[in-house]
């Protein structure tokens, strides 16, 4: 069967769905791999290395004839219209934000796998692109903060005096948050963190950071994710966070609730009591923002109370794509591992009774197989049993 | 006596010669401090904090009436023309690059102290601005590299495979180079380093990096600085460095020879064998460049041999100014410590017989007191005894 690897078409996207390393794996399972010339160029993988790994290089991928199309960004309707019925697609799909494309995939009879839907099981970890890309994002956002902070992260004891370490506050301690904690610790900052989930305190402490306990109920959802707080509790949470934010040189927010807009953890009034030069990084800016006023891809100066200067509010955008070599390396392995799970004798034959395969499937044979997406698409489906919140 | 602290006038300069903390020290020694409004704004020190520290805020500094003028960047001729005879100035002077200004300082009867000239003695360490600003530069250039590298610095062992640590090569292991080594190690990179000075091997090893021994003679100069290599040895050094550069993901060059252009350590042909996406940071770009083709303040893509993509050659510029809060904090302490050494009963009265005070003096009472600068200014002075190379 023929696996297609395309040049991503979204402007600014530098990742690629296969690397020479993942091509070797795909070829070893008996698949033919076609790579569009230049597909890996922006990520640092030259065409020659794909050829050496056993891929066929093509000037333009013949999307109509791919048995399997791999991709990074969610497909657009134009691409879906070119796929033959029965084609398999594997990549990020962001179904909640792309319902018309999901409908197109369904109507075109595509068997689409959305990497976001890979269940959080230990045997599926190697296919979990949310985790692999969050690892990149968590590391990256600390570099972004350190670059903008007019101060050092580490403690320095010099002949001209002692410089105290920067104080970094991480809100949301999922994969990205824990990685941000680890990276800020590496760089020598004093790190504290908060999360609404009960299990977070131990995880944060195990990274060497101080866990902030607020007098707010915990909110644990399915699959280790957080659930939404009621507004009165969210307001109380913000009020209790205020002194911690004002004491920080860097605040990094990473809170996400699957299928919902990002929770508003920080109001703009909470920023105006910070110290001049401080930096606030909103990793959730693209999904609604944890911080009031953040704009994806923009640095916004926020004036402080009392004419004390400004802080910088940074809305992150395309974070994983900013480190495309390693982000692609992990992502491509996620893709090839999922394909390997479905490949028998050189044919990709999904066994939908497999919890991982069935769980990751978004559309198949003219139906939307992911229950929450199906419900979101059909208002009348509100009476159906609700699937797991993902 | 009145100490003036000005807003720096050089575009892009964000540092300031006094901080609220250093003002406290100056006031405690009996000096009056006038701070131009907004002088610390870009560095993150609001006017109000200077006032609290005991400074007088002025809309425009009355340069003609300052007893002592403190500054960061070398003074320009226009400012010097406004100073009253006998005024004391303290700041960076870059005399070798600013001979006309030195002549103006001499002719105006200014007692100027150049922080670059502070002797490398242990009791003068707290006044050594080259060291304090190199600390900032060394830390900063690693962040600049990490931001541009499409890969992680640390080793990661993930469910989707192991990512090896980035390989960082530091050329030149002075204060900035050692700080770059330390910061790259903190971030988890595998670090190696090279320097022509004999003492470097132990210093590099003590930071946890691998010292690269090349079969080239060492070149130690006065004050712990390096001296220039003869061209045949420099060529051999480049040839021996080539495989180390090609094996690196990040190369950081920090080599400087006092009073001379930066040594050329890396030819552009040596870059074309690197791997796609690699990053080369030339910290010496402003003083001639360690790397052929580097341009201060620019990122230059260098195409690799064999159509294998590009690397990025980064010429650094105004590095310390990019972290103005802590850079100013250290710099201001260097300035106030030198002033404290010269202050008796609230009067700045330099004792030129003090090795530190005399050494740091550039001009006094109508003469250029720094011998190498004097020689550079007067071609006929070639017959005078040569001062220490600084």
From TrEMBL, chains A, B:
MF terms from GO for this chain are: NADP binding; oxidoreductase activity; proton-translocating NAD(P)+ transhydrogenase activity
Described by its record, this protein's role is as follows: The transhydrogenation between NADH and NADP is coupled to respiration and ATP hydrolysis and functions as a proton pump across the membrane.
The UniProt keyword set, sorted, is:
NAD, NADP, Nucleotide-binding, Oxidoreductase, Translocase
The protein's name = proton-translocating NAD(P)(+) transhydrogenase
A GO BP entry is: NADPH regeneration
* Annotated Alanine dehydrogenase/pyridine nucleotide transhydrogenase NAD(H)-binding domain residues: 146-315
- EC number(s) recorded for this UniProt protein: 7.1.1.1
């Amino acid at each position: 069967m023929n696996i297609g690897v395309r040049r991503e078409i979204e402007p600014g996207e530098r990742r690629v769905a296969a690397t020479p390393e993942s091509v070797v794996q795909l070829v070893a399972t008996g698949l033919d791999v076609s790579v569009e010339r230049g597909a890996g160029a922006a990520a640092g993988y030259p065409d020659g290395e794909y050829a050496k790994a056993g891929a066929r290089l093509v000037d333009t991928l013949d999307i109509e004839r791919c048995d399997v199309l791999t991709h990074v960004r969610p497909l657009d309707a134009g691409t879906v219209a070119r796929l033959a019925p029965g084609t398999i697609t594997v990549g990020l799909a962001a179904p909640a934000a792309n319902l018309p494309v999901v409908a197109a995939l369904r109507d075109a009879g595509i068997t689409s796998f959305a990497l976001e839907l890979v269940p959080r099981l230990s045997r599926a970890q190697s296919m979990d692109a949310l985790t692999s890309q969050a690892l990149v994002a968590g590391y990256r956002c600390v570099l972004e903060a350190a670059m903008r902070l007019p101060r050092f992260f580490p403690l320095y004891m010099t002949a001209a005096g002692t410089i105290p370490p920067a104080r970094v506050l991480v809100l949301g301690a999922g994969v990205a948050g824990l990685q941000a904690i680890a990276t800020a610790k590496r760089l020598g900052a004093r790190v504290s963190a908060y999360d609404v989930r009960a299990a977070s305190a131990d995880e944060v402490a195990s990274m060497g950071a101080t866990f902030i306990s607020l007098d707010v109920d915990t909110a644990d959802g399915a699959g280790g994710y957080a659930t939404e707080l009621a507004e009165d509790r969210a307001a109380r949470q913000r009020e209790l966070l205020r002194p911690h934010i004002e004491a920080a040189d860097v605040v990094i927010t990473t809170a996400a609730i699957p299928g919902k807009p990002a929770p508003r953890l920080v109001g703009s009034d909470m920023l105006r009591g910070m110290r001049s030069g401080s930096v606030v990084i909103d990793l959730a800016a693209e999904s609604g923002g944890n911080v009031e006023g953040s704009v994806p891809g923009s640095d916004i100066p926020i004036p402080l109370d009392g004419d004390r200067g400004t802080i910088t509010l940074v809305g992150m955008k395309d974070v994983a794509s900013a480190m495309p070599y390693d982000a692609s390396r992990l992502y491509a392995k996620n893709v090839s591992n999922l394909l390997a799970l479905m490949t028998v004798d050189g044919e990709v034959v999904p066994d939908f009774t497999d919890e991982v395969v069935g769980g990751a499937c978004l559309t198949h044979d003219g139906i939307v197989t992911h229950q929450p997406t199906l419900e979101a698409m059909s208002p009348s489906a509100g009476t159906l049993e609700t699937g797991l919140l993902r």
